[in-house]
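Lecture 7, part 2: worked example. A protein chain together with iron/sulfur cluster.
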Amino acid sequence: MESYSPNNLAISVEKQHPAKIAKASFPLRYGKYSEIRTSEYEFLFNLNGEIKFIRGLNTRWPHPAEQLKRTDGNDWVYYTVGDKSSADGIISWLGEYYLPCLPYPSNSIWEINYFANPEIMNGFAAWSQLYANLYESKKERVHTKAKELISSIINNHDRVLLERSRKLNEIIGERVSVLPPDTRHVDYEIIPLAISDGCLYHCSFCCVKSARKFQARSKTNIIEQISKLKEFYGRNLENYSGLFLGNHDALGAGVELICNSAKEAYSAFGFEKQGKMTPFLFLFGSVHSLLRSEDELFERLDHLPYHTFINIGLESCDAPTLAQIGKPLDNTEVLEAFDKMVEINAIYENIEVTGNFVIGKGLSDDHNQSLKELLRNAVVTSNAKGTIYLSPLKDSHKKRELLPLINEIKEQSKIPTYIYLIQRL
Ligand code: SF4
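Predicted complex, written out as structure tokens:
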């Protein structure tokens, strides 16, 4: 790591943090980044010189472990530790030490508007000031490596970053409106690759659905995306360990398309590089796609060089609730899918199937009771694979009032159970 200190800026051109994303209360740092520190803020840039994190170092910043993170979709998300950072804090609800506060409406239990906090907003002002100072420093004598970094930061100004997020959507065909909850294991840092569009059900409760009918992409389209994505991510590819096969029901795309796309991406994106963690493969699946999937798919997924997470939208095992939320499924199909999920998790070492259930004020007690019963009686092995995610309905008012119910479900569940926060890329 080489450091320079022109104009009271501490510049580290390239800092190597652990490649593996650890779950820790502090600090949240991984991969290779450039860093610039002023007396009051720390700014991190990815290997393309794009701003990635801003963290306040002054005593007015809300908490030393909190920070602003810019996503590849160009959203600024504020990571808060919540009211308490102990074992019964955010970690017990989300399985992570941080609650991502999103700059757009979602289904979060905790409505935290970070825009209303002047100290956090000062972080953005400090970023603008740093950019202006770096622009000015172009005329000054600075070491070549620091100069190269400064120039790539300057080239990635706000308009360029916005344009790049549009470009990413153009490559994959549409914006990823929701990420699987399991992508929390890589801090939501995934490379998206669309292998299908649309979904089977078009449920009325869903706030992220697309209007398209389910259709798998062609092999040519997928190969073209991989090549464009490789160019798009450039040097920063090495900071990724997660691949998301999109979109809402990639499991329905079939064994050949899923496994071949994952393999192509593995070599194109350099996931095989020595010293890196085992990469993660994420996909969504519907109940019918799971029930239709044969053993061959799971055998082949289990032998891929990934740890695979398949997230299934189960929603409810109570028939009137399925009708109420407009999910065109029979509750026996949901129960069958749940059993298959448990079975796959027990058999395959490198596959983890997780399931989502809805919760909300307007849902009946029968729904809540049937869910508790299902999770209480689940016959699971001791390795605790296959998290259950509870997804608050977006239109459910007073979401905080759901916490006692969530607690009751968690206490009775034999499977790790967390809240699902809907996030886009
Ligand atoms: S919940 Fe899943 S299946 Fe239903 S509309 Fe939304 S994306 Fe499609």
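The longest strand covers residues 307-315. The chain is about 35% helix and 20% strand. Keep this in mind for problem set question 3.
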